[in-house]
Amino acid sequence: MCPQRQFQSFTTTAESTLSHTTHKQLSGATIYDEPENFLEIEVCNPKTHFPSGDAKGMYTDYEIICRTNLPGFSKRSSSVRRRYSDFELFRKLLIKELQLSNHPKVSVQHLPGKILLSNRFSDAVIEERRQGLNKWLASVAGHPLLQTGSKVLVRFIQDPTFQG
């Protein structure tokens, strides 16, 4: 047979706990304030260009929209357009920057594959690539060491004249 125990009721426990503790009151505005540090990036709005008026030289670029309050970024919000080849250059420069700065723990994933098919300008293929680039850039920009220490990342995301 189990020995009998006396239990405090929930209200008694809650009353005794709350009466001895001072709680910080949060207002509705405080709860929904901007986070202390944030970086939001989205790859969106693909646009296919016909520079010579025909299929030769066609390319698609993507808008990169950024909102941040991180001190390493010069603008709180920005919008730039980038081609796939710009992403390739960015990845190459980022790897070089990491090698020179002794950050061996940071590995940069491969970009989504290059599209070599004749239907590379179809809406479905462009959307698939956009999603892949969005996921890839989010993983790169989401790394804390890159957010705070990569000048190449900042230039790629915010400088409209990014050339490497």
Q: Any overview of this molecule?
A:
The chain is α+β, with helices and mostly antiparallel strands and 164 residues long. It has one domain: PX Domain (2-Layer Sandwich), CATH 3.30.1520.10. It is 40% helix and 17% strand. It contains six helices and three strands. It has helices at residues 10-20, 28-31, 84-100, 123-141, 144-149, 151-158, and strands at residues 39-49, 59-68, 77-83. Strands 1-2-3 form a three-stranded antiparallel beta sheet. The relative contact order is 0.15. Residues 1-23 have low confidence and may be disordered. Keywords: Cytoplasm, Golgi apparatus, Lipid-binding, Membrane, Protein transport, Transport. This is Sorting nexin-3. InterPro entries: PX_dom, PX_dom_sf, Sorting_Nexin. A 1,2-diacyl-sn-glycero-3-phospho-(1D-myo-inositol-3-phosphate) binds at residues 83, 85, 114, 120, 129. It is found in: Cytoplasm; Golgi apparatus membrane; Prevacuolar compartment membrane.
